[in-house]
Every structure is written in C-alpha cells, then in structure tokens.
Write a structure and sequence with these properties.
The structure is a single chain. By secondary structure, the protein is α/β, with parallel strands linked by helices. It folds into three domains: 213 residues, P-loop containing nucleotide triphosphate hydrolases (Rossmann fold), CATH 3.40.50; 205 residues; 77 residues. The protein is 60% helix and 13% strand. It has a six-stranded antiparallel sheet. The chain is elongated, with a radius of gyration of 37 Å. The model has no long low-confidence stretch (mean pLDDT 89).
Length: 630
C-alpha cells in the first residue's frame, strides 16, 4: 500500500442531532481514528446510521433487506427530528448537510449559502464509506454489494457513468415506445397498398370509350380522377395547418403559468426580493416575447386557413362546373356510363392508396431516422459498459497488487446474467418448452445483443448451435422472441459485471460466498481498509473476527491508514481504540428513552471506561494478566 502520510482527504467534522433518541447530541470528530464505545443500547449504531442517513450513503439497493434494516433504525431513533453533519472536502471546503426523515439532504457552504446537495454528495465533492453491523458478511455473499464496494475506489467515476447509462437506457426505451406503433402502422399500410399495382394494371387496360369521341370521353374521365386527388391534397393541407395550430396553442401561456406557480407572492416579497424580482422581470419579458411570437404564428396559420378555405370553395365551384359538363357528356354517351362509373371507382380507390403510399414513405423515413439514432445510442451504451468495466478491472488489479496473494479480486464483464435469465423466463412463459431450463441455456450461452442477431437472421439451426438447444426448443421459442417489441426490449436488458473476491486457504482460493462467517469478514475487511481518501465509518468491524486477526490485520491496517484517512468505528474490542491509537474516544450511555455521550477524550482520558466496558473491568483484566503469568 502506498505511503499516504498527510495526503489531502475528506473529513467528517461534526455530528449534531435534534429530536429522537439522541436528542441534543453534538460531537466533533478528529482526523485519524475515532472510536465510539458504550454498553449495548447506548446509541452507538444510531450514531453510525444517522451519519450515513444525513450524507445519503444508504447501503445496497432499494428494497434490499440491509437497507430496510437501516431505514427502520433511522425511523425508530430519529422520528421527526433532524440530523446535521459538517464535512470538509480534501480541498478544504466545508459544508453543513442536514436531513430529516422523508426529506432529501440540504447542504450549505461555509458562508451559509444553500447549494445543491447532489453536488456535495454522491462522490462529486465528498464521499464517505460507511458499513453497518455485519455488513461485511452481506458484501461477501451478494454480488451487487461487492460491486458497490469496489466502485467506491473509482472516486465518483463509476457513479457518473451509471448516471449516463440510466439516462441513455431511458432514452432508448422512449425511442422504442415511439417506434413500435409506427412500425405497426407501416405494416398495415404495406398490406393495404399491395392492392395498388393490381388497380393500376386494371386501369391501364381500361379504355372506357372507343370511336370518334373516345379521346374526349377518356380525358374527361381522367380529369374527374384528378379532381378527387386535388380535393384530397387540399384537405391534407388543412389538417397540417390544424395540427400546427394545436401545437402552437399548447405552448401559449405555458411559461407564464409555470412562473406564476413557482414564484408566488411569498417568494416575491420575501427576504431575497432584490434577487428574485429582477429575475422574474427578465423571465416575464421572455414569456411576453414568446407569446407575441406564438400569436404571430397563430395569426399566419389563421390567414393560411382562411386562404385555403376560400380557395377550396373556388375549387369546389370549378369542380361542380366540370362535374356538370362531365355528366352532360356521359348523358350523350350512355353506352360508356357503366364502364365510366366502374373506372371512377377504381381511380378513387387508387387515389386513396396513392396518398397512403406517400404516408407510408414518410413513416418509413421517420422510423429509419429514429432507428438509426437508437442504434447509435445502443453503440454509445456499449461503450459506456466497456468504460465501466475497464475502470473496475483497474481497481481489481490495484487491489490484487496490494492485497495479494492472500486476497484475489476478479471481474467478469456481464458475468451476472440473472436479470437477463429472468427476462427470458417471462418471455417464454406461454410456450410449451421447459422455460427455466431453456432460459438458463440461452442466457449462459449468448448475450442479449447476439440473441437478437440470431433471431433476426431467422436461422433456427444457428440458434440451436449457439445456445445448445435441440431443434424442437428452437422452433418453440422463435415465435415468442421474434416480435419487434421483444427484440427491442432484449437490447436493453441490464447485464451487470460479476465481481469475485477469493481468500487463499491452504494454497487454494475460495470465493467469498462459500466461506465461513469469520472467513468472509477476513476476505472483505482488507478491501474496506484499503487506501482511500474517504472517511471510513464502520459499526463493529471486529464482529466475527478472532482477536488475533483483529490485532495482526485490523489494528495494523488502521495504524497505517490513519496517516492519510479518517476512521470512525463503533466497537466493543479494546484492541481497536488502544492499539489503534485512537485520536478521540466517545463514551456513550443511555437511559431507557435517551442515549448520550457521557465522556470524550483520548485513550488515556477514557482509560477507565475502556477497561470497564471493553475489558470487563479492572479486576477481570488483572485476573487474566495473573492467570496468563505476564
């Protein structure tokens, strides 16, 4: 491990609690090792978890049992109170972060100016590594906990990439939602316009009249068809004007309405009126300018509507006159009237289909553009996955260099396919195949994008070989997976990298999930104590570890790490504060309804409390010494 003596690092400076079990608590932490001791029920765990809660470092994912347990501790011990934590970044900037149950953290800088708490937390400016009691065991057993642990060493890079991934996935899913109904419409239009070549072929050979007046009659019939197309074009233009007007109207008054809701009288006449008022005046001017432009657009559209309506009336009159002449002509040549009506019906249907063909071409162009953009986003998503994996790979290599050969950390890109397998099981639930077995075979054999390519190729044999399926299984699953909405969804199925932490035992590596409880902690703790600028806050790190390991590994790691890292431990083990040379010890006690810090000092100041609480008392300590004959 590198020598990080006196390097810049983050600090938790102060914790204040108002309300709840620790009402009135106000303690200041020092750099180096801080230890919180006390009898069970004194509030040591509550101090750890309320610190975690304030700086939004909750464990695991939403709904995880560990997170639920922490949330229950916070709810039971904070109630309607508030917790406030003062932090100092590695750059020396100070922030005060406060939070109540049901709220997001609120942050202020050293001058008391409110800032966006997200800028302070989440690894952007400040981060702390906090572990609950027995959390090391959970980390050893759970893949995404191990990922979270490793990601902390990225100094916020992974968090930023995860955010970009989530935004991109949402955009891709939105694109899919928009594309699918258009593709369905394209399919219906393509089916419908299959009739067009048949109609055009009929019309080619359908010369209604022959003889001396044939040309005039046939021209009159052709012009009648053109009149239908002219009227369809005019009606289409009117629809475009209507739709454009609706869009413009939907924007009218929107900005002003939002401004009025956001900046009410209370804000306008509040203590910051001097700042708020000119801001509102400027935004009102923008709103007024937009309204003027919207009115201009609506005015021009209105004029266009009036002009088209007038011209349509003129066109209808011309059509009426032309239709009258057409009818007169047909009256003189009744022998062609039946054939003329038949041709008019065909031409009217052809005109309808020609407009649908144009609509189809426009839709295809739109969908092609949308799919091209979506494909580009999928490629960008793949690059983000690769970048994330390479960062994690670098972290694993750094850990192996420092902690090997006893500890070995490996990362398999997309190695956790549990979500993918569950997704396939759901897709295959209405098939007769053994869906759990087939879903496992497919998910273990090919990633989602490759599966999409195999399905799109239509090659059942290639699918069978790639996924280890028999012919019947391939035939059965193909229809269930070939729908475009299914293929789109498969392209964005979440695949997590799989982390593995192994402990070397008797010359062989054993993965952390298969170890005993004590061995799990032995495998995970060195990673937790590894080089970092973040404060390390742990509730009872000695749990499930023997005292020999605590002294040989934990204490020695603490003494090395505290040269360039702050640590805050709640502990029942005397080796940690005494041999770890704690800079500050907080002694806690409680009544049945309230916990408090009853003494603060260094190890020498709090010696009697350490002996009583952690050694079993002076008499027990002396008797052990006598028995050991030291």
């Amino acid at each position: 491990m590198n020598d990080n003596t006196n390097r810049p690092h983050h600090l938790i400076k102060r914790l204040r609690i108002t309300g709840g079990f620790l009402d009135g608590l106000d303690i200041e932490f020092l750099d180096g090792l801080n230890c919180i001791i006390g009898p069970r029920g004194a509030g040591k765990t509550t101090v750890i978890e309320l610190t975690r809660f304030a700086i939004d470092a909750m464990p695991g994912r939403q709904g995880d049992p560990l997170r639920k347990r922490v949330e229950n501790i916070i709810e039971a011990n904070l109630g309607g109170g508030r917790v406030e934590v003062t932090v100092e970044t590695k750059d020396g900037a100070t922030y005060v972060i406060s939070r109540s149950a049901g709220e997001q953290p609120v942050a202020q800088d050293a001058q008391g100016k409110l800032i966006n708490g997200v800028k302070v937390l989440g690894g952007y400016l400040f981060r702390s590594d906090i572990l609950s009691q027995n959390q090391m065991e959970s980390i050893a057993e759970t893949a995404h906990y191990k990922l979270d642990l490793l990601d902390k060493f990225s100094n916020g890079e992974i968090g930023a990439i995860e955010w970009d991934i989530s935004i991109l996935q949402e955009s891709i899913n939105d694109a899919s939602t928009a594309i699918l109904p258009l593709m369905s419409k394209i399919q219906n239009l393509e089916e419908e316009i299959k009739e067009l070549p048949v109609l055009e072929e009929k019309l080619k050979g359908m010369r209604v009249a022959q003889g001396p007046n044939a040309d005039a009659i046939n021209i009159a019939i052709t012009h009648r068809s053109l009149r239908d197309r002219e009227m369809r074009a005019v009606d289409a233009i009117k629809v475009i004007i209507q739709d454009t007007g609706k869009t413009a109207k939907s924007l009218s008054g929107r900005m002003q309405s939002e401004l009025n809701m956001l900046f009410n009288d209370e804000l306008l006449h509040g203590p910051n009126q001097q700042c708020i008022e000119p801001m509102i005046q400027y935004l009102n001017q923008i709103s007024a300018t937009l309204e003027e432009q919207i009115r201009s657009i609506l005015d021009n559209l209105g004029k266009g509507w009036e002009r088209i309506t007038t011209d349509k009336g003129v066109l209808e009159n011309l059509h009426a006159e032309q239709e009258a002449l057409y009818r007169q002509l047909m009256e003189k040549h009744k022998e062609v009237q039946i054939r003329s009506n038949e041709r008019s019906g065909f031409e009217k249907r052809r005109n309808e289909l020609l407009f649908k063909k144009r609509e189809l071409l426009d839709l295809k162009k739109t969908v092609d553009e949308m799919r091209t953009k979506r494909d580009s986003q999928l490629a960008e998503l793949s690059e983000l996955f690769d970048t994330r994996f390479n960062i994690r790979l670098g972290i694993a290599e750094e850990l192996n260099s420092a902690l090997g050969p006893e500890i070995r950390v490996t990362i398999e890109q997309f190695g956790d396919r549990s979500s993918y397998r569950a997704h396939l099981e759901e897709l295959l639930k209405n098939t007769s195949t053994r869906r759990i077995q087939v879903a496992k075979k497919v998910s273990d054999s090919v990633p989602p994008q490759r599966l999409v390519e195999l399905i799109q190729s239509g090659d059942r044999e290639k699918l069978s070989k790639a996924c280890g399926l028999n012919e019947n299984q391939s035939e059965e699953i193909f229809p269930a997976l070939a729908r475009i909405d299914v293929l789109f969804a498969l392209q964005t199925v979440a695949l997590e990298d799989a982390p593995y932490v192994a402990l070397k035992e008797r010359g062989e590596y054993r993965e952390s999930g298969s170890l005993s409880t004590g061995q799990k902690c032995t495998a995970i703790l060195p990673i937790i104590l590894f080089d970092s600028i973040n404060p390390l806050v742990v509730d009872q790190p000695e749990d499930n570890l023997d005292n020999s390991y605590v002294y040989r590994t934990v204490v020695r790691s603490i003494r090395r790490a505290t040269k360039g890292r702050q640590m805050i431990f709640a502990t029942h083990n005397p080796n940690i504060p005494v041999l770890g040379e704690a800079a500050r010890v907080f002694v806690m006690d409680s009544s049945r309804t309230k916990g408090a810090v009853v003494r603060i000092g260094d190890v020498d100041t709090c010696k009697d409390d350490i002996v009583t609480l952690l050694e079993g008392g002076e008499e027990a300590f002396k008797l052990r010494k006598e028995r050991y004959k030291y």
